[in-house]
Amino acid sequence: MKKGIITVVGKDKVGIIAKVCSYLADKQINIMDISQTIVHDYFNMMMVVDLSSSSSEVGEIIDGLTSIGDEIGVTIRLQLEDIFNSMHRI
Amino acid sequence: MINLFEVNETNNMILNENLDVRTITMGISLLDCAAADMKSFNDRIYEKITRYAEKLVQTGEDISKEYGVPVVNKRISVTPIALAAAATRASDYVEVARTLDRAAKAVGVNFIGGFSALVHKGATPSDLALMNSIPEALAVTERVCSSVNVGSTKTGINMDAVRLIGKLLLDTAERTRNLDSIGCAKFVVFCNAPDDNPFMAGSFHGVGEPDVVVNVGVSGPGVVKKALENCRESNFEELCETIKKTAFKITRVGQLVAQEASRRLDVPFGIIDLSLAPTPAIGDSIADILTEIGVEYAGAPGTTAALALLNDQVKKGGVMASSYVGGLSGAFIPVSEDQGMINAVAAGALTLEKLEAMTCVCSVGLDMIAIPGDTKASTISGIIADEMAIGMINQKTTAVRIIPVAGKAVGDVVEFGGLLGYAPIMPVNNFDCSRLVNRAGRIPAPIHSFKN
């Protein structure tokens, strides 16, 4: 399974999760876990997603999420999960 | 499963603390390109380099994007040209340097290393041809890096080469006078040069290496500095633990990128070089780590001890993160590429002599140091000889990358641009050493080289 981590950071507002989720559904990307915190109106979310059934290239999905972020004024990143596993798991 | 805290920690290192993978360097053997005439040799090396490295830059950029970590440089190292080109029996290798430069530009890498010679015991006619071509080669090319290994613990120091290089450096400086003698910034003289170093300017593809290999250099002084900000009141045990843990995390990212690059390029993975390599960016400084450990400026008493500690912990943390550690691995202490070092020089805290002492305990040597353009060739050779002696006796790699900036004197500042940064001209001890330097031959191998 090819897993990715999506992080969304920015000022909280209506519809952030909705936008991201509908884009992911469109790309056949399954969401496996979501966690989020809001500190002082600051929205910080992380999603674990399964990229293996998507027919799009990872780079293309990253670009798509970046432009959604630009649209709604938050920072959205998608990174392959391995970078976090490498750093934090032995 | 990975949690939000861990994700934020990693991304904070990348976004705010300058964590990056400094270089993916593809080593390519040119030994099978040997030819009796210069044109065939040039055609063959151009063809081989551009074929092997065709996808290097794109692969590096893809990995960078997909993992969200910058891969700053994509580079190539090749077999020392003095070996690969020897069959041409040419007396001038400038044309080869031009070919390397063309190949580098064709595949989009920013440096290609290996315009090099290994002369630690003596020079062949090909080695001499290469060394004598260095000043012009570095002046007429943009991306070619050159190095000469003049000593080793096993063989001693070839003082004839040391003497010659003093003169070559002044010539190189003069030929690139209008660019602040930048030619000298692309040349390194080594003792105990490693065969698999991915960092420029001293990278070359050693003779014991496979046909092609991928080596990765990690970085991250900013991350270590940030981690140590929470250790101001800590004892040495906690301090060292923090450096080790941070070095481990940094190196693991490098290991991942290296394996992924190796897989995607279908090229064997060689080594991770777990060096802390600074850049001129604010906060990406080795000197700042030393001040965080507890000296006012790099160069203050205690600096060598702090650097020894840092270098050792970086290695201890890093070796657990990768099974194949090599290259230079340690802390780099270049002057022009490190804002904290520049500040220390400007404040009068850091001298050439202190830097020399620091090189006894860190990974390389006198690096990116600008000195007055009117420094005598024999003085430059003397500085090189001292540094080589440190490497020879301590069984470690040492190097000198020193720039006698033509037309500049102490008090001036030179600007090299980009990753090479800028530097104040440092004063040199001008007492004469020409009688030493002018002695012919080599310094014998030290007693502890006889380990058989």
Automatic annotation (TrEMBL), chain A:
CDD domains: ACT_1ZPV
SUPFAM superfamilies recorded: ACT-like
Residue span, ACT domain: 5-79
InterPro entries: ACT-like_dom_sf (IPR045865), ACT_dom (IPR002912), UPF0237/GcvR_regulator (IPR050990), UPF0237_ACT (IPR022986)
Source superkingdom: Bacteria
Gene3D superfamilies: 3.30.70.260
A Pfam family matched in the record: ACT_6
Record PANTHER family: UPF0237 PROTEIN MJ1558 (PTHR34875)
Family statement: Belongs to the UPF0237 family.
Protein name according to UniProt: UPF0237 protein GXN74_12850
Source organism (scientific name): Anaerotalea alkaliphila
Automatic annotation (TrEMBL), chain B:
Annotated Pfam families: DUF711 (PF05167)
Highest taxon above the source species: Bacteria
Gene3D superfamilies referenced in this protein's UniProt entry, alphabetically: 3.20.70.20
InterPro entries per record: UPF0210
Complex and partners: Homodimer.
Family designation: Belongs to the UPF0210 family.
Family matches, as PANTHER family: UPF0210 PROTEIN MJ1665 (PTHR37560:SF1), UPF0210 PROTEIN SPR0218 (PTHR37560)
Protein name: UPF0210 protein GXN74_12845
